[in-house]
Amino acid sequence: MKKPNVFERPSDLPELDLKCPICGKTAVFPYKPFCSKRCADVDLNRWLTGAYVIETDEEEETEEKK
Questions:
Q1: What's the confidence (pLDDT) of residue 47?
Q2: CA pair distance 33, 25, nearest whole angstrom
Q3: How far is it, in rounded angstroms, from Cα 7 to Cα 5?
Q4: Top-level class of domain 17-51
Q5: Separation in Å, CA 57 to CA 12, 28, 54, 60
Q6: pLDDT tens-digit series, residues 5-29
């Protein structure tokens, strides 16, 4: 029995022509929606550093210290 390889695209999935949101190259299966680990890491870094923000209608919570 052949061991499945997570880096190969399963043949039963439809072919989609997605573009990487970071560089615009064609996305590859193991890193979708990105084209590479580098672009996935760039996106993660943007989330972690606050470059991406999801706006809400809620007010910021503040703690009163006595």
A1: 94
A2: 10
A3: 5
A4: alpha beta
A5: 42, 36, 10, 9
A6: 666 666 665 667 889 999 999 998 8
Q: For the segment 28-41, what is each residue's pLDDT rounded down to a tens digit?
A: 888 999 999 999 99
Q: Report how far residue 31's alpha carbon sits from residue 7's, in angstroms, rounded to the nearest whole number.
A: 9
Provide the residue ranges of all domains of the chain, joining segments of one domain with +.
Answer: 17-51
Pair 16, 29: CB distance under 8 Å: no
Q: What is the pTM of this model?
A: 0.63
Q: How many CA atoms lie within 13 A of 66 on its CB side?
A: 0
Q: Tokens 């809400």 sit at which residue?
A: 56
